[in-house]
Give the backbone structure.
Amino acid sequence: MKNQNKKTWIAVVVGLLVVAAMYFVWSTNRPATSAGAKSVTVEVKDSEGTVSSYEVHTDSEYLIDVLNEAAASTEFSFEAIDSEYGPYITAVNGETADFSVNQAYWAIYVNGNYGEYGADQQPVNDGDVFQLAYERS
């Protein structure tokens, strides 16, 4: 019985070490945010290629919060549904992108580069330009 208890404790300690190591890797590799006042631009490129631009002054650290602020204070609007990967943007300024109908979706660009994160994980830094672009696969 003593051997079994020892094995159980060793398994618990090893499990905790694995969880701690995974947390360390996650926390050192997650996108960095910046606190404080920021001025960012949200651009919308619709299906016709027309670009609309919205200036947002914010303290938010993530894009989803900036989008909510823009929707509350400008003519910008968006709709998103919750998915297993975070919010999935389905419509911007009244235009819906439906991948199941015509393989269209709203892409996120950050300072001209295709976004690496979803709207809820995309960090916001002063001077950033975010573009929501209607695209087809």
